[in-house]
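Hi support team,

I submitted a single chain yesterday and got back a structure, but I'm not sure I'm reading the token output correctly. Could someone confirm the output below corresponds to the sequence I sent? I've pasted both exactly as they appear in my results page.

Thanks,
R.
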Amino acid sequence: MEKFGERVRVLRDNKGLSQKELADRIGMTRSIISTYETGQKMPTYGKLIKLADVLEVSTDYLLGVENDSILDLSGLSEAQAGSIKDVVTAMDVTDRKKSY
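Hi R., thanks for writing in. Yes, this is the structure output for that exact sequence:
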């Protein structure tokens, strides 16, 4: 899937990660990341979830089902992005506590 590999590469670049750094965060090798980015292989379900988590997008976005990433934090410092994530997490926890 060409779209998948391209999205992984662009998201990785936007985060300033090398293939090796991304691979280390997910527990795989740099060469596997390369095969994903070139469209030679697709990740297992578990690795797909880890990739989405590290790249901060949905699995649907990585797979091309959605065209918008969940939250584009590119261009923000890690501290700024962390603050936004904290707010989103707090909102999510608040919504789960509501009883319907």
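A quick pointer for reading it: The chain has two domains: 2-69, 70-100. Let us know if anything else looks off.

Best,
Support desk
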